Amino acid sequence: MAVLTDLTIAQLAATLAKKEASAVEVTDAHLKKLDEHRALNAFITETPEKAREMAKASDARRVKGEAGLLEGVPLAIKDLFCTEGVETTAASNILKGFVPTYESTVTSNLWKSGAVMVGKTNLDEFAMGSSNMTSHFGGVENPWKRKGDNRKLVPGGSSGGSAAAVAAYMVPGSTGTDTGGSIRQPAAFCGIVGLKPTYGRCSRWGVVAFASSLDQPGPFTRTVEDAALMLQAMAGHDPKDSTSAPLPVPDFAAAARDPNIKGLKVGIPKEYRVDGTSEEIVALWAKGVEMLKAAGAEPVEVSLPHSKYALPAYYIVAPAECSSNLARYDGVRFGLRVPGKDLPEMYQNTRGAGFGKETRRRILIGTYVLSAGYYDAYYKKAQRIRTLIARDFKQAFETCDVLLTPTAPTAAFAAGDKMDDPVAMYLNDVFTIPASMAGLPGISVPAGLDKDGLPLGLQLIGRAFDEVTMLRAAAALEKAAAFTVRATGY
What we know:
- There is one protein chain.
- The protein has 16 helices and eleven strands.
- By secondary structure, it is α/β, with parallel strands linked by helices.
- Strands 1-3-2-4-6-5-10-11-9-7-8 form an eleven-stranded mixed beta sheet, sandwiched between helices.
- The longest helix has 22 residues, at 375-396.
């Protein structure tokens, strides 16, 4: 029998269905991997006892013939999703000791599909970062290393723990959230698949908010088919979330198993040739175009003229929304409380001790751009830019079916690099933010290695709520790239 931790979600489902292994055996194998690779710091909270209980219940359902879509599959959950009875921290000291009495809709959907939770993964504090170095619980290490260089590399952010856990074979899948690239960029850095659904495809209820008009849950997996399976379980309309789209969930898995893209028009945005992008990534992008062309697609050049303004507009809109959302953390109702001589001092002490440097920076920026004297000059203007970006995509999709771009401008960088330069750090999201601003689905597929042996990803962007076409194109790209390399030692 194959090593259980080497199997994909689809392969595990088949193995469990044939009764070649039990859910308990599969869970134990993955919990052992967690023990072996704890030094990566991918998890904030491990839940081995809960995992074994869920696995036993899964085996019992299978005996009764009640197996769900992800029955018995071990998953890691980003510690931004509220999980009933399990501490949820958002990687921040200010939520220390917060144990939700309810379950997020996305995780509830996963448990209904039969999945098993092995733990809560590390992230940038409140999902604010592109490196997973801003966590109160310490940075996450990327399983990959440069050839001949033992320095620790970042896994990307904010969902770095979820990406590292999948890349290190601790779990076959995990959840993340993507606000400006926090699923797609870590996926590229870790050599795995990361899918950001259309805004509204997955419920945000029970997910700790960063920027409410941008946040969207999605999956990390090692294959496109697995990402489709997870999305199928996660997605669906939720009356508790007013931004959740009242649309049926298509058969995403069937789309991912159909890499036929003959006649598909693939848009190549000319504005995505950005200064500072690695030459190897530019070359890989060109290779990606040729791979899709060989698979029967037709490349067409498109223009997204306002995409160059996406990054600055995002770093006005997102901090503004974070400033509003994080105002609830005051030491009064839940989480950390640092006493003071009066209420204002208690607020000040709690927030000063509870929030990290990057979170404080974004709160201050957001409060500034929302203030009476600057609202029109900054926030209102950024929202107008956002409308223009969405219009650009709409016009581009009149001449193509999907867009192909790089996922990130470079491969994973060393831990500690760029930490003193927030702007350089923000530039990591230059290719992912435009789709986020327009609310569109995007997926990063590992497509090659750089000269240092590090993984590089290519991004496909689809029309709103057309993940099906995007998944077909992603499956074709995955088949052509044939990326089977894994981090040494994992």
